[in-house]
Write a structure and sequence with these properties.
The chain has one domain. It is 75% helix and 0% strand. It contains 14 helices and no strands.
Length: 304
């Protein structure tokens, strides 16, 4: 039992590291690729990898009546999320982007409250207010406030899009199971991104080796691998345990960004980040009210 517990902890740390590395990886890739082409390549690579997994696991095609909904969810959780995040990261640092995305569980709870009248406990309300204060501080940490505000707004929209993916996924997630559902929605997201395929050949031809390797890494590792590990942890311990440590991803992102792309956070961004993380941590504290579909949400990110 102890060995299994250490395996779970190791897997959780590994997931955090992988998703954390995606944010600086995006910054590196954007040096040679447009956000549209970067997302298209990520989802094509991820789709091909999942095709292999689907053949290996014997995943069947979804029912025809569910295909439009699965494509729509793929558009929310993968197309819109990755596109808005990548555009936002042109003016927002990797660490701050990770902090903003980590508010997804809070946005999911608020959306569920608004759309389906899910009750929210006092700690979630408190955590939401604290996180808003932290994000407000973060908004004033970069040199160009106007550019950073646009980027921050886009990344918050990305988090909102991902939140909608979680709120509306419940029925189909129950029907198809975790791995099949993720496979279908990644394919749906990739299908929608084909609209941006013109000009991608030129980007690939002129991209430096570092950017090409970064895109390949993003497509294989952060886009797909964490979901496979989450499937393993969920099968062993349940979804709540599987996602309980993911709010620590921004901490890893700041460290990796400093080591990889030499991003040094400002004092104000550190203070804002700590306040934001405190708010997110509050939403994970035990409370009497039922959490927002605790066992049914597969929390962000990743998708990164």
């Amino acid at each position: 039992m102890r060995n299994q517990r250490w395996q779970i902890i190791s897997a959780q740390v590994f997931i955090n590291l992988i998703w954390a590395s995606a944010f600086p990886g995006i910054r590196v890739s954007l040096e040679a690729f447009s956000p549209q082409h970067l997302v298209l390549l990520r989802l094509i690579i991820g789709s091909l990898l999942l095709l292999g997994v689907a053949l290996l696991k014997g995943i069947k095609l979804p029912d025809a009546k569910d295909i439009p909904a699965l494509i729509g969810l793929g558009g929310l959780g993968f197309t819109s999320y990755h596109l808005l995040l990548s555009i936002g990261e042109k003016t927002v640092s990797a660490g701050i982007a990770s902090l903003l995305v980590s508010t997804t569980p809070i946005l999911s709870a608020l959306l569920a409250f608004i759309l389906v009248r899910e009750r929210i406990g006092k700690m979630k309300w408190l955590g939401s207010c604290i996180s808003i204060i932290g994000i407000s501080l973060i908004s004033f940490t970069s040199g160009s406030v106007s550019a950073s505000m646009i980027g921050i707004s886009l990344i918050l929209l990305a988090a909102l899009s991902e939140s909608m993916y979680f709120v509306f996924q419940v029925k189909l997630l129950k029907k198809y199971g975790f791995l099949s559902f993720v496979t279908y929605t990644v394919w749906g997201g990739a299908l929608l991104m084909l609209f941006f395929s013109p000009g991608i050949g030129s980007d690939l031809q002129h991209a430096p080796k570092d950017s090409l390797l970064s895109v390949l890494y993003l497509g294989i590792i952060p886009t797909i691998i964490p979901y496979l590990i989450l499937a393993y942890i969920t099968a062993k311990m349940g979804a709540s345990e599987a996602t309980s440590s993911l709010y620590m991803t921004p901490v890893f992102t700041f460290v990796i960004s400093w080591l990889w792309i030499y991003e040094v956070p400002t004092f104000l961004s550190i203070v804002g980040g700590i306040i934001t993380l405190l708010g997110i941590a509050c939403t994970h504290l035990p409370q009497k009210t039922r959490s927002i579909r605790d066992g049914e949400y597969i929390i962000s990110k990743r998708n990164i």
